[in-house]
Design brief:
Structural class: alpha/beta
Distance between the termini: 38 Å
Helix content: 25-40%
Radius of gyration: 22 Å
Order of helices and strands: EHEEHEEEEHHEEEHEH
Strand order of the largest sheet: 3-2-1-4-7-6-8
Number of helices: 6
Length: 284
Amino acid sequence: MPRRSLHRGIIYVATGEKHLQEALISARQATKLMPDLSLSIFTDQTVPEGLFDHVFPAATGEMGRRAKIRAMMESPYEQTLYLDTDTYICQPCEDIFWSLERFDLAVAHEVYRNEYKFEEFPGTFPSFNTGVVVFNKNPLVSKFLADWETSYETVFSKKRKADQPAFRHTLFHSKVNFYVLPNEYNFRTNYPVVLGGFASVKILHDRSPCLEDLAQLLGHDTSHPPLYYGPVHVRFFLTWCRIRLKTLAKRAQSLGLTGTIKRVFGRKSAGGNTSGSETSTARQ
């Protein structure tokens, strides 16, 4: 019998030994941080006993993309968090399920807003990254997943073996009520990305050998303003510096010396009070 509830759980799809080893690292971290959350895996490999509550067979081929969609359709949970095998949880993130109290499905945007030239969508409906998807089990989502599978198999797999264009197309034409997750819940450290102010990374998404270091750096400090993580485009950065300095100089000139000092130190004091007030309110 399953040792944890079937109400909520995480599923992985691991085809091939490489992806299984990634899934084991991710799943062990998930269990360490959220021991009450059930884990399931769909795989074509032999899995060590004791880590997963459920082990299901998975179809092979196409880097597991067909198996990925099928696994979501066959999830044993009422509320499912699907994770790619190259994800790593930095801190407990049960709050990702909170979005399902209001929405059917939640997913983050892809860093590349329009991944492939054959995608015929405007920038107002950019690509989504399906490495982290949380969803309810209900008729609308079931239909969406079935339509996604059909769209991938009959149309998009013939253009490129990638599931995200079919996901985007299907979601646009679906009646599913969905929510866009912030970067912190699908943090792609192999690309430039912004970490929100007073926020910390919940889920890393990267095939890095330094996941623990990244989790330590990005997953704990919540006292910072918005931060940029990743390589810098030199011309853009220098332009930003020039414009920012010019803007600050103009503000200081209009405020005067005394006003500038009050503005700087007053803002720091107010920021600390605001943060404490928000924390107190949230705990109530």
